[in-house]
Amino acid sequence: MGIESSCDETGVGIVRWVGDGTLELMADAVASSVDEHARFGGVVPEIASRAHLEAMVPTMRRALDEAGIEKPDAVCVTIGPGLAGALLVGVAAAKAYAAAWNVPFFAINHLAGHVAVDTLEHGPMPPCVALLVSGGHTHLLHVEHLGKPIVELGTTVDDAAGEAFDKVARLLGLGYPGGPEVDRLARQGDPSAVVFPRGMTGPRDARHDFSFSGLKTAVARFVEAKEREGEPVPVADVAAGFQEAVADVLTMKAVRAAQDLGVDTLVLGGGATANSRLRALAEERCTAAGITLRVPRPKLCTDNGVMIASLGAHLIAAGAQPSSLGAATDPGLSVSVSQVVA
Ligand code: ATP
Ligand code: MG
Ligand code: FE
């Protein structure tokens, strides 16, 4: 079982091994507080924590019913990274359930979970580069094996990719979350009508880092200039141009990282992988470079308990020792530190 509460989704997922190293999904219960954050234009930590408190027990009930079990063999939980108060709710619940059921407890790294969940759909994972893009994260990772420490190749130096979508949507007067709105509007726009800057794409950026705040500022300046001149803002073209810039940078750097490392598989994860242009461009560039692209179905890309259960299953199979019930949440946990925290 995996319990997830690092951001605005309360998730309880259950998986099991069936024969030849295949993982099977038994339950995927998720409750999201995304609507409660909408009027603030972003996740409000206190609201998220309270929503987790209310949703945890009913979500657990649903997962157990869905799987048709009374208790799992092990309880895994996201210990970090994430919102401090939100993490506390899931971790406290996981410890209580593990103690009450008398089963081992595993404190799991959320980011590694986003990678591991892909094995549920596409089977055993070869050495790969993973690109994680969500409201809170933008990471390029090198994963040799799910039982081994993950190497962080790069991350964002400012805004996360999904966050940039949310901020640009706000500038354009669209709703929250902004990603789906920008994606929808961009279909009606011309991606080359307004060309926005691609941050940190120069040959000297050896680490595979990202920057999206300059792009966001460029969109803001463009909109301001139009308004000052009393001209209408071509919102569809701006959405398309912005989305093109994000998709271009993400896919270019992911493919470059895979080529640098001599790896022939790219895995995508995180809620912003729902973006249609990102998916299409990743597909196109991976095909051109002879790289196999693996993208889990959208429901598994956003935060959920199944990803934590999946990683837990791999770590347990690789011989990981259970964590202490005294393990503390770590809001800033790095992906390269460890996948299971003692
Ligand atoms: P975390 O960062 O901890 O994974 P999160 O709640 O911020 O959690 P997700 O729930 O995985 O992230 O994803 C939500 C983010 O994905 C939001 O920023 C949203 O705007 C973005 N997003 C969703 N759909 C799309 C889309 N079609 N195009 C671009 N961005 C999208
Ligand atoms: Mg979310
Ligand atoms: Fe996440």
UniProtKB/TrEMBL annotation:
Its cofactor is Fe(2+). It is found in: Cytoplasm. Residues 25-309 form the Gcp-like domain. Pfam families: TsaD. It catalyses: L-threonylcarbamoyladenylate + adenosine(37) in tRNA = N(6)-L-threonylcarbamoyladenosine(37) in tRNA + AMP + H(+). InterPro entries: ATPase_NBD, Gcp-like_dom, KAE1/TsaD, Peptidase_M22_CS, TsaD. HAMAP family: TsaD (MF_01445). This is tRNA N6-adenosine threonylcarbamoyltransferase. It comes from Rhodococcus pyridinivorans.
